[in-house]
């Protein structure tokens, strides 16, 4: 029996061959080391994310998230719901909060879910994976499996906005959250605590609709990391990871910069520090290679 079990909501971006599939690879490796079992919610659906806010009103979006929660309550009773994607976590948690404070919304949700043989109760907490790591296991336990400390690697911990507001990690500052810094330091890396863009928005879906505005935001995030001597940027959010990594070429062309900095997930760092291979850490799924992590992963 695993040390901890959770009802797992993967989200669309973590699907095999999707944009954050390497995130899922590293999470699975990390959880195996930590003896954490993720029980996938059967037949889960998209949380709605960006398109869920357009035209159709709020009820369809809340129904999508409530359906996932209702299935989880039915299939994985008594387990906290955990998401690795910041957007999935935020959307699901928001739905739970809204339903908790609105009897009318609860009635509407259950009237619709009844057609699918489901009932929403909202008894399972909705949490992000980093919450689970920090609050359920703690830094001391997370440090125990470290076999290859990430010594000499300087990290700009980019938290972003979705895992920070309005809910965030318990006890953390909204303006200057420290959990990502502490997590990377637990793996033996050096966290750049004066990195001032850690909660700046990357623009999210604005990168598709109004890229020039998003590029300005992303440039700030990357430039600050360079200014502080970072070897790589680390984030808990798939959208942040994608935007900050993928658009470096376009930003270089637009602003005349020469950015080429790896943008990694915390779970990739943890997998390498725990002795995992580059493949187990999903390093082959990054566009900009993290050569320093690859070198550590290759050590015998």
Which key features would you list for this structure?
alpha/beta; 2 domains; 300 residues; Glutathione S-transferase Yfyf (Class Pi), Chain A, domain 2
Description of the structure:
By secondary structure, the protein is α/β, with parallel strands linked by helices. It has helices at 21-34, 58-75, 86-100, 103-113, 129-137, 139-143, 179-186, 206-209, 211-227, 238-246, 248-255, 266-273, 291-298, and strands spanning 4-9, 36-40, 81-83, 126-128, 154-157, 190-191, 232-235, 263-265. The chain has 13 helices and eight strands. The longest helix is centred in the first third of the chain and has 18 residues, at 58-75. The chain starts with a strand and ends with a helix. The mean pLDDT is 93.
Structure, briefly:
With 300 residues, the protein is α/β, with parallel strands linked by helices. The protein has helices at 21-34, 58-75, 86-100, 103-113, 129-137, 139-143, 179-186, 206-209, 211-227, 238-246, 248-255, 266-273, 291-298, and strands spanning 4-9, 36-40, 81-83, 126-128, 154-157, 190-191, 232-235, 263-265.
- CATH topology assignment of the largest domain: Rossmann fold
Number of helices, counting only DSSP H or I runs of 4 residues or more:
13
Strand content: 5-15%
Describe the biggest sheet?
Answer: 4 strands, parallel
What global shape is seen? globular
């Amino acid at each position: 029996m695993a040390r901890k079990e959770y009802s797992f909501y993967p989200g669309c971006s973590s699907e095999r061959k999707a944009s954050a599939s390497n995130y899922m690879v590293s999470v699975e490796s990390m959880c195996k080391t930590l003896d954490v079992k993720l029980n996938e919610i059967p037949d889960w659906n998209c949380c709605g994310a960006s398109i869920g806010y357009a035209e159709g009103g709020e009820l369809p979006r809340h129904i999508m998230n409530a359906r996932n929660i209702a299935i989880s309550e039915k299939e994985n009773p008594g387990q906290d719901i955990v998401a690795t994607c910041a957007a999935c976590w935020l959307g699901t948690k928001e739905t739970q909060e809204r339903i908790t404070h609105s009897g009318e919304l609860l009635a509407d949700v259950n009237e619709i879910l009844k057609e699918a043989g489901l009932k929403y109760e909202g008894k399972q907490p909705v949490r992000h994976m980093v919450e689970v790591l920090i609050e359920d296991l703690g830094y001391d336990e997370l440090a125990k499996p470290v076999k290859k400390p990430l010594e000499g690697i300087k990290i700009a911990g980019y938290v972003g906005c979705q895992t920070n507001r309005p809910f965030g990690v318990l006890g953390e500052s909204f303006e200057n959250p420290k959990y990502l810094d502490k997590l990377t330091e637990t793996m033996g890396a050096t966290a750049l605590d004066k990195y001032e863009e850690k909660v700046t928005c990357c623009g999210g879906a604005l990168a598709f609709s109004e890229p020039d505005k998003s590029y300005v935001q992303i440039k700030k995030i990357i430039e600050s990391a360079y200014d502080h001597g970072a070897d790589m940027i680390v984030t808990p959010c798939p959208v942040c990871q994608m935007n900050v990594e993928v658009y470096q070429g376009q930003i270089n062309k637009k602003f005349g910069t020469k950015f080429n900095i790896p943008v990694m997930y915390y779970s990739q760092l943890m997998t390498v520090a725990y002795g995992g291979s580059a493949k187990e850490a999903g390093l082959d799924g990054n566009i900009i290679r993290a050569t320093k992590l690859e070198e550590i992963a290759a050590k015998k």
